[in-house]
């Protein structure tokens, strides 16, 4: 197969890296890709990135399958355009992509289908939002309705912070038009888990559980980001918890979308809070997570391309994915200023040294300059490693990360630590 990957971040580098290792794959293209992807495939211009332009690109490359990384093209309807032209693609229709494109749509869908989630209200003006705060205790969660690149969620610890965030969201100052409507919801107690499945509209194939680290600072402090690291480990959820997630959340979501006339095909990402009452949905995404994709692809031990093609053809029944037992850990190395105003152009050194230690360094916000590889985005690299157990994987990933340098570089020092604490408690 010839496969086209849409996107140019760390998730897309990880996808291209895994697909290039599949026996069924002849060539991997990425649009627009990044310098790291050039090591495993060929980067091609994406033009304006509109659905019709991406279709013409896939046709010119004679791509057998297109895999969409980011959410924006899916919300814009790229999957609809491809399917109308008879070209295989992984991703939901624009109608189904509303599960991520609109937080209000997603919350109302959850309510209609009885899928467990936090209590919420939706508002579009300050007075109503301030009044709604009285319905929830503190802390309280505020979410922009539209796409906000992972920065549209604020957990306000007190009333003043909540009112300031409401003003910032509704005025457009924080996330632009994405915040013209907001969701206010109760704060859930528990531990967050990312649970992703692949669906052909009816059949469901679960991936391994992962845990993202959204806050910029150690101990989940500071503002939310697109994700500062993740790990993938079978032990994140017990067999009973996995069954509860599939039975109470995933299966009703897939069936609910199909019943409403919008069969969901592609990756459904459920951001969960594992509460004392069981799993509850924090959010739905309609694609692989970033950085969750990096440790997932690192752990996978299957011909992923064949499975993806089966999903695109509506023939996922009976498909299986094999996984290496070793946990994988991804540490995101961020640029100066992230998640605020980011500085670019800082020279990156040490990637070869890190990979000589057995790590795989997935590139995200990078570009080639006359002086070499430089930063060109907020999340720059995803240093990924595995080990016989989680502690070893964490140690190896951080040892590799220590070999990389660029001015302004910062990263969390506690990726995966919650997992270690969980096992310590279980042993007592």
CATH topology of the largest domain: D-amino Acid Aminotransferase, Chain A, domain 1
Largest sheet: 5 strands, parallel
CATH superfamily (homologous) name of the largest domain: ATP-grasp fold, B domain
Structural class computed from helices and strand pairing = alpha+beta
Q: Count the DSSP helices.
A: 14
Mean pLDDT across the residues is 96
Low-pLDDT stretches are none
Widest sheet: strand order?
Answer: 3-2-1-4-5
Work out the count of structural domains: 3
Structure description:
The chain is built from 14 helices and 22 strands. By secondary structure, the protein is of the alpha+beta class. It has 3 domains: 90 residues, Rossmann fold; 68 residues, 2-Layer Sandwich (Dna Ligase, domain 1); 240 residues, D-amino Acid Aminotransferase, Chain A, domain 1 (2-Layer Sandwich), CATH 3.30.470.20. It has a 5-stranded parallel beta sheet, with helices on both faces. A 5-stranded antiparallel beta sheet has the order 12-15-18-22-19. The chain has a 4-stranded antiparallel beta sheet with strand order 6-9-7-8, sandwiched between helices. α1 packs parallel to α10, α2 crosses α4 and α7 packs antiparallel against α8. 50% of the residues are buried.
Brief overview, please?
The protein has helices spanning 10-20, 51-61, 71-75, 78-84, 98-101, 103-113, 126-133, 159-171, 239-259, 293-299, 304-312, 351-356, 390-401, 417-427, and strands spanning 2-7, 27-32, 42-43, 65-68, 89-90, 120-123, 140-144, 153-156, 182-186, 191-200, 204-206, 210-212, 215-217, 221-224, 229-232, 265-275, 278-285, 328-334, 360-363, 366-369, 372-375, 379-386. With 428 residues, the chain is α+β, with helices and mostly antiparallel strands. A hairpin with a 2-residue loop joins strand 20 and strand 21.
């Amino acid at each position: 197969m010839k496969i086209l990957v849409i996107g140019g971040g760390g998730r897309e580098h990880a996808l291209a890296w895994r697909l290039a290792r599949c026996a069924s794959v002849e060539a991997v293209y990425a649009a627009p890709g990044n310098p790291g992807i050039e090591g495993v495939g060929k980067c091609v211009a994406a033009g304006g990135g509109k659905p019709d332009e991406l279709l013409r690109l896939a046709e010119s490359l004679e791509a057998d399958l297109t895999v969409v990384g980011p959410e924006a093209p899916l919300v814009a309807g790229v999957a609809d355009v491809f399917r109308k032209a008879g070209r295989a693609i992984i991703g939901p229709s624009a109608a189904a992509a509303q599960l991520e494109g609109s937080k209000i749509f997603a919350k109302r869908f959850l309510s209609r289908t009885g899928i467990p989630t936090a209590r919420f209200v939706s508002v579009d003006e300050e007075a109503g939002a301030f009044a709604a705060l009285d319905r929830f205790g503190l802390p309280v969660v505020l979410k922009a309705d539209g796409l906000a690149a992972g920065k549209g969620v604020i957990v306000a610890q007190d009333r003043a912070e909540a009112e300031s965030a409401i003003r910032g969201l509704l005025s457009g100052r924080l996330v632009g038009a994405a915040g013209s409507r907001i969701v206010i919801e109760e704060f859930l107690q528990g531990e967050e888990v990312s649970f992703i499945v692949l669906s052909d509209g009816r059949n469901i194939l679960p991936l391994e559980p992962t845990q993202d680290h959204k806050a910029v600072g150690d101990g989940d402090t500071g503002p939310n980001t697109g994700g500062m690291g993740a790990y993938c480990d079978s032990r994140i959820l017990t067999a009973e918890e996995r069954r509860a997630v599939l039975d109470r959340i995933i299966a009703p979501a897939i069936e609910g979308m199909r019943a409403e006339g919008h069969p969901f095909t592609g990756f459904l990402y459920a951001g969960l809070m594992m509460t004392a009452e069981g799993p509850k949905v924090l959010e739905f995404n309609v694609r692989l997570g970033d950085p969750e994709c990096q440790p997932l692809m690192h752990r996978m031990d299957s011909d992923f391309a064949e499975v993806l093609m089966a999903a695109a053809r509506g023939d996922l029944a009976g498909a299986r994915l094999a996984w290496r037992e070793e946990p994988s850990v991804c540490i995101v190395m961020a640029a100066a200023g992230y998640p605020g105003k980011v500085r670019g152009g800082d020279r990156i050194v040490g990637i070869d040294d890190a990979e000589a230690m057995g790590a795989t360094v997935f590139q995200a916000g990078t570009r080639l300059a006359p002086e070499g590889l430089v930063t060109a985005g907020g999340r720059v690299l995803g240093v990924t490693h595995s080990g016989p157990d989680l502690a070893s994987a964490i140690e190896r990933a951080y040892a590799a990360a220590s070999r990389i340098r660029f001015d302004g570089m910062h990263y969390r020092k506690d990726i995966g630590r919650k997992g270690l604490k969980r096992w310590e408690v279980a042993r007592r």
